[in-house]
Amino acid sequence: MSQVERTAGLSATPAVFLGLVMLVCMLIVGSVRWFSADRILASEQAMLELRLQQVLSPSQYNNNPGEDIRIIDTKGGPVTVYRARIDGKAVAAIFDITSGRGYAGPIRILIGILENGEISAVRVLSHKETPGLGDDIEISRSDWINGFTGKSSIELGGQLSDRDWQVKKDGGVFDQFTGATITPRAVVNSVYSTLRLYQIHREEVFQ
Q: Model-level pTM?
């Protein structure tokens, strides 16, 4: 073997070794992702179930709303609806809504509506509102969000008119926050819009 051939062989060795190391690393990463995928999925499912239980007690249904899903097409885009049932009979629909009209950005909300049109509960999932002002929409900060429980609209057999579904500053029945009207106004509007959405798509929701 010539000197040139020996030199070429030696220079190729590190490249081959590096390639093998990269291949082993890729196999390890792929294996970790494959084995952890089920755990990640299970964790996400558990978190979803916990969130749904915040707006509707598990004692009120015996199916898995997290797997009983309906997508409703609206002018604002698709809306995810989780359906709760007892022995196949409709009990409630839980709407995953995002409002783009908060003071600091979108507010993501879960709104539970019983089959008769009455609100079971409302919970804020995420927001960027000002701490100490707009964050009173969180259940951990105040009980303001509980003011929607049991409410409905006249169109769905309730007692509240269109005008009622506003903050008091606008002539409605819902409290606003001192120094922060935009945030509660956005939530009230979103809840009422969802009730109207439920009214329009009532039959479709539970198909």
A: 0.77
